[in-house]
Amino acid sequence: MIRPLFVLIATLVPFAAQAGDAAAGKKRATACQTCHGMDGLSKLPEAPNLAGQVEPYLVKALTEYRDGKRQNEIMNVVAKDLTDADIANLAAYYSGIQVDVLPPG
């Protein structure tokens, strides 16, 4: 039981060390708004919603787009010039947007 907990903590430490600045992320997000919206809610059916996504996931996805490990024609171009700080800030901004989920009807 201790070993899996150690692995989980070791996996999350790099993300905690990269805590971003949501205000700086909001400014940087202007480049994202065409597809993902300033509110993180997608304006295009092929672009995912970013609002409320967990911060480590966003950091991982943007880093993989930037580094070419994850392929998307648009995102690879958009992410190629992002610094680690830009990625952390964008992740902090979009993960900090509250999303309310309501059941149908």
Automatic annotation (TrEMBL):
Keywords: Electron transport, Heme, Iron, Metal-binding, Signal, Transport
PROSITE patterns, sorted: CYTC
Gene Ontology MF terms: electron transfer activity; heme binding; metal ion binding
Keyword Transport listed: yes
Domain of life: Bacteria
Keyword Signal in record: yes
Annotated Cytochrome c domain residues: 20-98
A UniProt-annotated Pfam family: Cytochrom_C
Signal sequence coordinates: 1-19
SUPFAM superfamilies (UniProt xref): Cytochrome c
PANTHER family: CBB3-TYPE CYTOCHROME C OXIDASE SUBUNIT FIXP (PTHR33751), CYTOCHROME C4 (PTHR33751:SF9)
This protein's name: Cytochrome c
Lineage, uppermost ranks: Bacteria, Pseudomonadati, Pseudomonadota, Alphaproteobacteria, Hyphomicrobiales
